[in-house]
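Q: Now give one record:
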Amino acid sequence: MRGGVRGWPGVRLKRAPRSGPVELVSHGRLLDEANVDQEEALGVIGVNLIYGAFYYYEPEKLIASLHENLPATRMQVDMIKFSGPAYGGIDNRLMSLQLVSQGLNATVMFTADGESVQTTEVLHKKAIIVDLGRLRPVTYEPNESLAGARKLSLNKQGT
């Protein structure tokens, strides 16, 4: 396995006097093999996060700034959460999708309540079924496909 050190870089700050704090929390994975390279990458991510929190008021720009001076092959960011008064109208699900569209990760996952979660935490040591399909127009085909896969899975577990 290449790299794989995981961490939670985040920052809490006040943008203006007498305002509530804003908080940015992310979860990522460093892909370098050597410890010294991982330390360097973590430092760059931390500086980018702090700089972005102070100077980028648009979350999309802040997300884009996370990998400045650091190739995407050295890190992955699989979750990001914005909170506080400055980020009141932000949908964290859309910000997680920005991680995918900007090449910081290949997948994101949400709970039924719409909270962003770590894909690896939810899927670790779990059997999953991947069904490729279309949701436009909405049809019952995915439900039928999943019901058939569930039936096959239960039959294999029973034997």
